Amino acid sequence: MTMKKVTWLWGISSLLATFVIGAPTTGAQYVLQQASHDSSQSSQSSQSTSQRKLHGRFLHITDLHPDEYYKVHTSTEENIACHRGHGPAGYYGAETSDCDSPLELVNATLNWVAANLKDEIDFVVWTGDSARHDSDEEIPRHNKDILAMNQRIADAFAATFSDDKGLVVPVVPTFGNNDIYPHNILLPGPNDILKTYTDVWQNFIPEEQRHSFEYGGWFYVEVIPHKLAVFSLNTLYFFDRNAGVDDCMHPSEPGYKHFDWLRVQLQFMRERGMKAILIGHVPPARTSGKQLWDETCWQKYTLWLQQYRDVVVGSLYGHMNIDHFLLQDTKDIDFSYIESGSGQRASIRETIEDEISIESSKDYLIELRDDWSKLPDPVQGRDLEESEGKKKKHKGKKKKGKKGKKGGKSKLGGPFAERYQLTFISPSVVPNYFPSLRVFEYNITGLEDTPTWVDTMRTLNAQGSSSSSDSEWRELELHDERNLEIEKKKKKKGKGKDDDENSKGPKVPIPEPPAKGTPPGPAYFPQPLTLKGFTQYYANLTYINNDVTTDSDDGDDEDVSSWSWNAGKHWNKKPKHAKPKPREFAYEVEYTTFDDKIYKLKDLTVRSMLRLAHRIGQTSSDDAKGLVSQQDSDCDDGEYENQIDDDDDDDDDEETEPSDDEDDESESDEEEDVEAEKKKKKKGKGGKKKKKHRKGHKKRKDTKVWLHFLRHAFVSTRSTDELRDL
């Protein structure tokens, strides 16, 4: 595919300054002004719009962090942040450092997307942080600057995904913790920030939902009308670092109201036969020792996803910069964190730093692996065809173990692993590693001729009608519905309850589970709208910037990093050119799940990803018996030489059937789980104690799949030796 040059319109007239891409600039930089379209371009654009079909692909882009004060060849050191001094800051960014993105990188990224992806995707999810960090005391952030930059980026997205008649590809944005001032702090709505963003995102928020967005910062878009909606969650009301709110337990809190809104809307999706993708900025990251969300919010989220597992296709987040995924375990649901008035308990987990450093990322990923090492073996479960054919045969055995003796598939929550939920976290555009974009593919079997978003919107606009009149009605009845449910529950309870139980306050409305006999949702079994896989793109800035010397006198390429700042691999290098001479900018494929010979993923269902997580958690071939066979002859694994091969035996499609002594084996497994739980409790409540305890442990052995996971987590910026050092 060839690279095309286009220019972008920024929406604030006072900021309409221009510069030529590829030319060095001095001082603050402004992004490109929109070029006029000639009549032939307009004609071609209209024609392509009328012929748009679903492609079964969408783009996830996150954490641009544009910095108008970034200067080429400045220092990457702390408190300088590529704003002044002399150093290796490249034309398109200072890769592997904590400097933010130059505007050239944002321009080049949107240019590349317009030329190579725009006509091949159905919608865009954009998960926040479109302003710089507060990394330089000499140039502090101000609210007006943050909002102005977000306006410019929003206008650039609108220009990128529009034709001469307007938006062609729906874009669904969400807040980042750096999109507000002070960062992390968002007070309950309605407030001036939410009102301003209603205008900033006017091209993206459906008009009938602007009132609810002004109220709480949440909304959804039917990206495939009547089939699929993308829900933009305001995760700042869940974020543990937001000192402006408390929790998701008390009805007065915006987090509580957010989940109430989500409950009503997901029920509405279920009634309409629709599915939903959830997106947000701050992910529900939670290990045995660390977390990002307030525990009451994590508990509600996990319960909501369990109850709406027939509706939710998947969950996508940003913020953490590292490429990885999460598994929420519904067995961790604790109603004492959910019921209002039950008395909130202090969380035993430390809060993960709001700006994830390389050092904290290492610690977090190792803890994630430790948690995954305790996952039940997914191979013990059975596929749908096997379980359906033998359901009656094994029915008696299932009843036999009422006190907890369960086979492998029962420990997973049935043959589709419905005990677990899946969260994907994409790496960022800001080059803390290499700039990244992700394109998901999803199943559109039977949907090929479904009217697209642009066709539906333009037809409705021509008719002068609103897109989702029912949505507003459901929104308005939320409060009355909640009160009605509370009254119903009170009547069912009768008069036999103690006064002290009644004094706890109203019961939280719990979402209804799927109706009996409902088949598993798209997240659990392949069907229309199931996520099939993704392709991860990255821009190798070391090559593109073309500015790093190779002289050994300049020192090695090791990071100078701390828990607060990382100066990057090239911190002590001298630029090889007095003036930048970058190569042509382009993203290239880093990896794709469709042909990755180490991951060996059939799709992105929970069952497939649970299997991968289990493999990552193992430390020897003996631990991984019966998992995916590793085809060494087909795999370029020279970079992982001398590492333990985690997959020795059975093929991915060969799954073990439960034997007659299944109950005995599962009893042994449960005893191991109990022992693991006891060890967890012995770790104590203090974060420091936990760290000391973990440091005393023998380092887990490296396997090919673990090193492969780490390589992608850090977007291919780390050598195998550096990965081993973890």
Rg:
26 Å
Q: Fraction of residues in helices?
A: 25-40%
Instruction: Report the biggest beta sheet as strand number plus sense, adding barrel if it closes.
Output: 6 strands, mixed
Straight-line distance between termini: 38 Å
Got a strand count?
16
Q: Spatial order of the strands in the main sheet?
A: 5-2-1-14-15-16
Which structural class fits the helix and strand makeup?
alpha/beta
Unreliable segments of 5+ consecutive residues: 1-48, 382-406, 469-473, 494-505, 551-556, 622-637, 647-697
Tally the helices: what do you get? 21
CATH architecture: 4-Layer Sandwich
Structure description:
The protein has about 725 residues and is α/β, with parallel strands linked by helices. The protein has a single domain, classed as Metallo-dependent phosphatases (Purple Acid Phosphatase, chain A, domain 2, 4-Layer Sandwich), CATH 3.60.21.10. It contains 21 helices and 16 strands. Strands 5-2-1-14-15-16 form a six-stranded mixed beta sheet, with no helix packed on it. Strands 6-7-8-10-13-11 form a six-stranded mixed beta sheet, sandwiched between helices. A two-stranded antiparallel sheet has the order 3-4. Strand 7, helix 6 and strand 8 form a beta-alpha-beta unit. Helix 6 runs parallel beside helix 7. It starts with about 40 loop residues before the first helix and ends with a helix. The N terminus is likely disordered.
